[in-house]
């Protein structure tokens, strides 16, 4: 809503413009009236709408036409004053003042007009018969008020209506000729209805109506009041109430009724509570609340945000198959002005056998958006009404900004839940296959993906020592000259080469030496397409020798050319390395996964030498992923991560 209101009074000389202002201020008719009243400001605390109001007088005797034009351009509402006992002043309303104002204002943003019939104390009849045809002719006229500055009749009402015309205008909401809501208003109210329909059954039941009432007006409706509202709808339309709940048609009818009865403020209160401005557009402040993200910090959704998104998913998963069909996705995004997810999303997250986004994939996509573009995530949450449903000041309450990564490294532990892995490699090395395998797709399924539907991201969950974490894989373009710092910023790096291509590993070696040799970011070399014959690489060192020289893990064999879903152990390992970048996770027994090997590396600390010796005696020849000592190792690992 506007922060202040500027009211301009115009009209023919001697119609009583100045007297109206002075009577309002002094609450009595002035004995002497100047040619023009000075601009006055009424404080917010004494106005009905709690908004500061500036009242400006115009005098033809004291002001030029240019000054009048300037005042018209600054005014939020213009009161055209005429004298009810002077027919010439009434004729001037249409012959002079309305054309003059329209010529000086933009057609798409006309200023609302109030017709003010002053000196009603001098006549016994009303001027409304003459004024009503004028009101019907000009849409910009909000209302007409007959008043008297002398006996103070309707003076306060006049300026209240002027305020109301600015703060709660009819124009954006209602078309008087058609006697129906305007399309933009219907669109906004439809979104509000869908957000308030918490179970998505197309009906606002009593609980949903009470929640809506409490959200917008801070008070619930009594049971009898609820029934009275529904009875009003029943009497006027057959399909406004269904199963004792309010349908969308009934909801729209109620707001039409409010406007027709002059209660525009009711509809405007609802619209503004749901984030709309005077043009029925969602405000920037509503969609993009401020979230400060310091350098080396990331953004994640918090627990309440995931609960909200879960409720949105459940609301639209009508067949309860834990996946969203294309129709269900479309229904979910009906509250958006555009479709936010393209076909690439289905190749970014997990889907079912039909290619529909699963519950896990749905949450993963939201996690990805929040991590990569928090402003976009805030916008989406705004469309869904997060701050309204969860009664928060803004959707910024859904975001957690993680602490600086350098602090995580110093403390050797992290509270983050999302970790980024950049996947680099020469063209054709198998990067895309590596991403899609993370989503459980073998080579046969990957071949069905259309070229224009491919994604450079893949995100899903992994479990590291019982904790669910999100791993975000990003396929980086292979052109080294165009790699930016943002491309390199990540928690772990995958260097992928094709074992069947003799020139593939050279790119990995070049990237490592150029970008990561002095970095603290863990790196893993992936020997992709390991089902094919391995050929000698045209590089001075073999991949194994290169890894040994630079103290990296040996190349990890990987293939997605299999009948079943690809193995995901490598992704768990990547997440573990991202969580514990301070630990050199070199496997001592070539099993590449056991807890003992992780402990071995963490136990290099001088302080824990004795514990290492004990572990060696206990678990010698017992190194197994499912060994009986696993609970002990997990407990020791938990302790060791604090050092």
UniProtKB/TrEMBL annotation:
SUPFAM superfamilies, A to Z: EF-hand, P-loop containing nucleoside triphosphate hydrolases
Subcellular location: Mitochondrion outer membrane
Alphabetized SMART domains for the sequence: EFh, RAB, RAS, RHO
Pfam families: EF_assoc_1, EF_assoc_2, Ras
Catalytic activity: GTP + H2O = GDP + phosphate + H(+); UTP + H2O = UDP + phosphate + H(+); ATP + H2O = ADP + phosphate + H(+)
GO biological process: mitochondrion organization
Species annotation: Cyprinodon variegatus (Sheepshead minnow)
Entry function: Atypical mitochondrial nucleoside-triphosphatase (NTPase) involved in mitochondrial trafficking. Probably involved in control of anterograde transport of mitochondria and their subcellular distribution. Can hydrolyze GTP, ATP and UTP.
GO molecular function: ATP hydrolysis activity; calcium ion binding; GTP binding; GTPase activity
UniProt-listed InterPro entries: EF-hand-dom_pair, EF_Hand_1_Ca_BS, EF_hand_assoc_1, EF_hand_assoc_2, EF_hand_dom, Miro, Miro-EF-hand_domain, MIRO_dom
Domain named Miro: residues: 2-168, 416-580
Name of the protein in its database record: Mitochondrial Rho GTPase
EF-hand domain sequence ranges: 304-339
E.C. code: 3.6.5.-
Gene3D superfamilies documented for this protein: EF-hand, P-loop containing nucleotide triphosphate hydrolases
Keyword Calcium on entry: yes
Keywords from the named record: Calcium, GTP-binding, Hydrolase, Membrane, Metal-binding, Mitochondrion, Mitochondrion outer membrane, Nucleotide-binding, Repeat, Transmembrane, Transmembrane helix
A single Gene Ontology CC term: mitochondrial outer membrane
């Amino acid at each position: 809503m506007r922060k202040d209101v500027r009211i301009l009074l115009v009209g023919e000389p001697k119609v009583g413009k100045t007297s109206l202002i002075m009577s309002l201020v002094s609450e009595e008719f002035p004995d002497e009236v100047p040619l023009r009243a000075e601009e006055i400001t009424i404080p917010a605390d004494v106005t009905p709408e709690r908004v500061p109001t500036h009242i400006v007088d115009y005098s033809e005797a004291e002001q030029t036409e240019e000054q009048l034009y300037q005042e018209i351009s600054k005014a939020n509402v213009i009161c055209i004053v005429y004298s009810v006992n002077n027919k010439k002043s009434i004729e001037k309303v249409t012959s002079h003042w309305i054309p003059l104002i329209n010529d000086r204002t933009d057609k798409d943003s006309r200023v609302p007009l109030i017709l003010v019939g002053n000196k009603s104390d001098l006549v016994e009849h009303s001027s409304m018969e003459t004024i009503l045809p004028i009101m019907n002719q000009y849409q910009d006229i909000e209302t007409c008020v007959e008043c008297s500055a002398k006996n103070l009749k309707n003076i306060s009402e006049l300026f209240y209506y002027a305020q109301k015309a600015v703060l709660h205008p009819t124009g954006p909401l209602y078309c008087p000729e058609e006697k129906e809501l305007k399309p933009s208003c219907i669109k906004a109210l439809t979104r509000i209805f869908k957000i308030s329909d918490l179970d998505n059954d197309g009906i606002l039941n009593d609980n949903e109506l009470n929640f809506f009432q409490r959200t917008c007006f801070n008070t619930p409706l009594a049971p009898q009041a609820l029934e009275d509202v529904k009875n009003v709808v029943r009497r006027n339309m057959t399909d406004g109430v269904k199963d004792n709940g309010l349908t969308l048609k009934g909801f729209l009818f109620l707001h039409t009724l409010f406007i027709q009865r002059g209660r525009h403020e009711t509809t405007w209160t609802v619209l503004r509570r749901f984030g709309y401005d005077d043009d029925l557009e969602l405000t920037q402040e509503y969609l993009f609340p401020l979230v400060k993200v310091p350098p080396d910090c990331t953004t994640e959704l918090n627990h309440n945000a995931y609960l909200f998104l879960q409720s949105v998913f459940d609301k639209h998963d009508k067949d309860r198959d834990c996946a969203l069909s294309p129709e269900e996705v479309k229904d979910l995004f009906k509250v958006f002005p555009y479709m936010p997810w393209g076909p690439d999303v289905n190749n970014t997250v997990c889907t079912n056998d039909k290619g529909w986004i699963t519950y896990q994939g749905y949450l993963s996509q939201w996690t990805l958006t929040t991590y990569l573009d928090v402003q976009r995530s805030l916008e989406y949450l705004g469309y869904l009404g997060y701050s309204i449903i969860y009664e928060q000041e803004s959707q910024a309450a859904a975001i957690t900004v993680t602490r600086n990564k350098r602090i995580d490294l110093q403390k050797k532990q992290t509270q983050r839940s999302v970790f980024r892995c950049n996947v680099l490699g020469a063209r054709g090395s198998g990067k895309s296959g590596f991403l899609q395998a993370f989503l459980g797709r073998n080579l046969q399924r990957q071949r069905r993906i259309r070229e224009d539907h491919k994604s450079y991201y893949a995100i899903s969950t992994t479990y590291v020592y019982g904790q669910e974490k999100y791993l975000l894989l990003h396929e980086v373009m292979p052109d080294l000259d165009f790699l930016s710092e943002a491309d390199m910023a990540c928690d772990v790096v995958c260097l992928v080469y094709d074992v069947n291509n003799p020139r593939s590993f050279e790119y990995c070696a070049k990237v490592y030496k150029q970008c990561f040799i002095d970095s603290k970011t863990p790196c893993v070399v992936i020997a992709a397409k390991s089902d094919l014959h391995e050929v000698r690489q045209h590089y001075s060192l073999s991949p194994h020798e290169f890894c040994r020289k630079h103290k990296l893990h040996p190349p990890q064999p990987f293939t997605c050319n299999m009948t079943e879903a690809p193995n995901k152990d490598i992704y768990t390992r990547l997440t573990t390395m991202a969580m514990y970048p301070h630990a050199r996770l070199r496997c001592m027994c070539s099993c590449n996964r056991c807890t003992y090997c992780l402990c071995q590396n963490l136990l290099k600390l001088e302080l824990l030498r004795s514990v290492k010796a004990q572990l060696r005696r206990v678990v010698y020849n017992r190194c197994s992923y499912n060994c009986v000592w696993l609970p002990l190792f997990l407990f020791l690992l938990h302790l060791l991560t604090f050092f």
